[in-house]
Amino acid sequence: MKISDVCKATGLTKKAIYYYINAQLLNPERDKHNSYHHFSEEDLHRLRIIAVMRNFGMSCEQMKLAFRYPNMVNFFMHQHMETLRQQLASNLENVRSISSLLLSMPPQYNIDSLDEFLDRQYQLTDQERSALDFLCPSQDARMVSIFIWCTFLDVEESEYRHFLWRKMTELTQKELSGSLRYVAKVIYSTDPKYIRSNSLNRYQDSMLVIKMNNASKENVKQRLINDLITLSNDETLQIYWNLNYEKVMFPIFNLKNGPLNELMIQYNENYKLYLNHLNICVNEVAWELLHGSLNDLYQSLKQVLHDQFDIENYPGIIGYNSFEKALYTQLPIPVMKKILASE
Questions:
Q1: Residues 82, 36: one domain?
Q2: How far apart are CA 146 and CA 141, in angstroms?
Q3: Is 23 helix (H, G, I), strand (E, B) or coil?
Q4: Integer Cα distance of 164 and 167 in angstroms
Q5: Does 76 share its domain with 93?
Q6: Residues 130-183: tens digit of each pLDDT
Q7: In this structure, is residue 186 part of a structural domain?
Q8: What residues make up the domain containing 128?
Q9: How many structural domains are present in the chain?
């Protein structure tokens, strides 16, 4: 296919197409005799996707990441939209600041006096931010839901599952203004490469638990115990645990053990099997920690985690430590502290 035909099919100019070729977003074949590009149907399809992302204002680097990790398009779109929402709020504040300046500026105003407005930048009111959220609502609840439940979303689409998914994101949205807001910030700040590998690891772990039988149960229990031993000996993991316990780990734990549990069981029947199998292992390990041979390990964990290891009331945190914690220990500790200290 000639470039002129590609321009018609995509709405892109020749200059733009050559720009994306030079940026290595696609690599069409060249004619050996005249060096002209020949575009395949695959090239055309890729350019149509590029045109969509360009219309959304995404950079070439963002596009490259999206093509490198194609199954993470949800993450990149959510991340970009959040950036646009922040820019929109900043632009609105600038408009209001300039408007206020113009209203107070006499016609003979000189630029030399402009410095008096240095500390008079307009800040959006809560009412204005609410109006902005109404016009451009955040999709953080959807993104957080995808990452929390990613292991169990690979099921056939249906109208009922769409209904369940809406209910799940609605419930998550109610928590985002409170306890879950830090979870969204951590996810946005984490390297997408690691998020992808973490999702794959969690999927493999979940399949291991779902397929658990009497022979493999001891392997799952030993995994839980070994990870607790590692936590008791690793000072860095202890710092992450103590940092995340209140603002990251517990909100996720409470969310997954609330009304969303039943919705996910309906969404994917394998989730019930996963819960049943994991709870068997977790409860047996918890008993050993509280009353049996692992009590010394339990006392050690209570000490190094500053009593933020309440398995009497929340034994499920044993499973969280093995199967979910890793995603929230990737950011450098100073970065994590800064995120958790923000409002």
A1: no
A2: 9
A3: coil
A4: 5
A5: yes
A6: 888 788 887 888 888 888 888 898 899 899 999 999 999 988 888 887 778 888
A7: yes
A8: 71-104+120-138
A9: 3
Residue 143, amino acid: M
Determine contact, residues 195/72, Cβ cutoff 8 Å: yes
SS3 call for 341: helix
283 Cβ contact partners less than 8 Å away, ≥ 6 residues apart: 315
Do both 212 and 193 map to the same domain? yes
Judging by beta carbons within 10 Å of its beta carbon (0-12, 13-18, 19+), is residue 167 exposed, middle or buried?
middle
* Dihedral sign for Cα atoms in the order 138, 181, 261, 271: positive
Q: Is the whole-model pTM more than 0.85?
A: no
Look at residue 282 in the predicted model and tell me its pLDDT.
96
User: CA-CA distance, 101 to 114, in Å (whole number)?
Assistant: 9
d(CA 204, CA 156): 19
Are residue 203 and residue 214 in the same domain, yes or no? yes
- Residue whose token pair is 């000639």: 2
- Give the tens place of pLDDT for each residue, 228-245: 999 999 999 999 999 999
